[in-house]
Design a protein that fits this description.
This protein has about 350 residues and is α+β, with helices and mostly antiparallel strands. The protein is about 55% helix and about 15% strand. It contains eight helices and eight strands; from the N terminus they run H-H-E-E-E-E-E-E-E-H-H-H-H-E-H-H. Strands 5, 6, 7 and 8 form a four-stranded antiparallel beta sheet that branches. A two-stranded antiparallel ribbon has the order 1-3. Helix 4 runs antiparallel to helix 6 and helix 5 packs across helix 6.
């Protein structure tokens, strides 16, 4: 409670006392019991009440978040050129009065929810997009009165600035900007761009009306039931298409895996065949080399083959029956003992 309020309370109480004293004096006079000094007391209390009333009418306490516009009957303009700053201030009693304006941040909300906005019921902004779709926009405007333009605000709008300036400007700007975008752009790719344009436009227009835009908040966007159903159907179709594409890719991967497996098996068979061929080639070369060595050995020692033939016979062979007309693979050694 400030001093100005205390003085106003005391002034009111003093006038009640004056009325009480007068009433008491009248009652006692009607009973032939006049109150001694009633006139003097009454006059004194009236003077005291007038002084309190005059002083309280001239004192104004301005809160830190307020500024005061002085409406003056003694000024040629009808108001003072300067606003009253925070603190206890003095104005001419009964000739001047003060209109207080808050310079703190204020929020004006327009929403489809009944209890969220300043107006009960659906107060969302209905707009139509560039492609003809209807959308409902929930938005909040955070603003404040320009401290340097409060007097002009009072002259032009007084305390009607919220309903006469903020609300219609916000709704008009949102509708105008929404009509420049397709609904798909508003929902996704260009939503931030649209919000920035709305913010810039509202900042300019509110500034022209002595207000400062602090922030613009696009709270939500609602669609018609038909469009919402179409969007849902589209999303379902896209999900199904993605699922089908996934199945196709999976089949391709399985086919590629099978192809690589078959290719690996074929490569293994080829490598195995090449290895066998190379082994046979090496073996054949070794056999040929061995035959060459044997042939070279036989050329210088023709009896060596006969010797090998004899050594291969079993050691216990005593008699051999040979057909009379069969040729011998190897010539038998001479058995005639020289005389």
């Amino acid at each position: 409670m400030n001093i100005a309020s205390v003085l106003q309370g005391l002034a009111t109480f003093s006038w009640l006392l004056v009325v009480g004293v007068i009433a008491l004096a009248v009652v006692r006079a009607t009973r032939a019991k006049p109150m001694k000094g009633a006139v003097s007391i009454t006059i004194g209390m009236i003077v005291f009440s007038l002084v309190l009333t005059t002083v309280s009418a001239g004192l104004v306490f301005i809160q830190p978040d307020e500024r005061g516009v002085v409406v003056s009957a003694v000024s040629p303009k009808g108001y003072r050129d300067q606003t009253l700053q925070p603190g206890l201030r003095w104005v001419i009693p009964f000739a001047e009065n003060v209109r207080l304006y808050s310079i703190s941040r204020q929020t004006y909300t327009m929403s489809v929810a009944p209890a969220e906005g300043q107006i009960q019921g659906d107060d969302s902004i209905r707009a139509r997009t560039k492609d003809g779709q209807e959308v409902n926009v929930d938005a909040s405007v955070i603003y404040s009165i320009d401290p340097n333009k409060i007097i002009q605000m009072h002259i032009e709008w007084q305390d009607r600035y919220q309903d006469a300036v903020v609300r219609p400007l916000a709704r008009g700007v949102i509708r105008d900007l929404a009509s420049q975008y397709a609904i798909e752009e508003i929902v996704s790719s260009k939503r931030a761009e649209m919000v920035q344009k709305i913010t810039d436009e509202m900042s300019t227009k509110l500034g022209e009306n002595n207000l400062i835009l602090i922030d613009f908040i696009l709270r939500d966007i609602h669609f018609t039931e038909q469009y919402a159903a179409a969007v849902e159907a589209k999303q379902i179709a896209e999900q199904q298409a993605l699922q089908a594409q996934f199945v196709v890719e999976q089949k391709k991967q399985e086919a590629e895996q099978a192809r690589q497996t078959a290719q690996g098996q074929a490569d293994a068979v080829v490598i195995q065949a090449k290895g066998a061929a190379e082994a046979r080639t090496i073996q054949a070369g070794a056999e040929a080399k061995a035959l060459e060595l044997i042939n070279a050995a036989l050329e210088g020692h023709p009896d060596l083959l006969t010797y090998q033939y004899i050594t291969k016979l079993a050691p216990n062979v005593q008699v051999m029956f040979l057909p009379s007309n069969a040729p011998f693979i190897f010539p038998l050694p001479e058995t005639t003992i020289p005389q």
